[in-house]
Structures are given as structure tokens and as C-alpha cells.
What does this fold into?
Amino acid sequence: MAQIPARSTTILSVRRDGQVALGGDGQVTLGQVVAKADAVKIRKLAGGKVLTGFAGSAADAFALLERFEKRLSEYPDNTRRAVIELAKEWRTDRVLRRLEAMLAVADKEVSLIVSGAGDVIEPTDGIIGIGSGGPYAASAAKALLGHSNLNARQIVESALRIAGEICIYTNTHIKVETL
It folds into this structure.
């Protein structure tokens, strides 16, 4: 039996006026079927000082989150270094290299995207959009950031709702965390 690809994630992070918000929708899709509508794809780590969201295979993402938590404990005051060390391990470890997921990571100072290709990207504008609906949510967030007075949390909530109305792999069951 062929494996059905899991799709569905939209993760968005926005920075504004000293606040960072990271949110995700709740939809999990298997093939053409919505398998779950209220999944939680974001986490607070490091005693609530680091926000993270994942896109891709849930099992792979949880394996990465576990490794990332270990890196955060090694570098508790340096999220960037913890992410870089995770990316190096992800890229060079035979087992980890096969994991299909992406992480969005944010703390009070930095927002980063990390992938299994060894990419660690810090977006210039502080907006991260990953997953199937990521580009839709990021586009909406850019417009809201430039043309509204909404705070970071409100932008993430509004942009995720917009993505949920456009992307078939995204819903409007939204969870948002802020720092």
C-alpha cells in the first residue's frame, strides 16, 4: 500500500513592537480527507522563553522538537546557537536526515526557520510562514503589518484566518502563543 502524504500545516510568526507571536491552524489532512481539525502544532519551550511551530510529518517534528529541547538546555540563553547546532545535527545524522519537517522558532530577540537541508534562515522582516498555507498567511501578515495598527498576536490570528479561507490544507481552528 502506498503511503499517503500528510499535509495540512500552516505556521505563522510575526514580530511587532517588542512582541513576537507564533500560531498555527489545527488541520491535519491525509490525502483528500481531513483527519483532524484541532491539532496543536505549536509549543512553548525553555520554560516559556522560546516558541516553536512545526510543519511536515508529526512524528518527525516531535523527534526534532525533542532534539531541539536538548540543544536549548545546552545553550539556554542562545536560541540561535541551539538552532544552528540542531541544523548541523539534522544535516549530518543518518537517521535525522530522513525526517520530513520544518521548524519555526522564535524568542524575544530572534525568529528562525530551520530545515533538514541545513538551512537556518532569519527573515529580514521577522515574518515566518511555513507549511502548506504558510505563503498565504505570510502574505496576509505582511499586508496587515504594513497597513494596520494590530499587534503581533492580532496579526497572526487574522492572517491565519485569511489563510484558512484560501488554503484547502488550512482551517480556522487557531492557537497562538506570544512572548
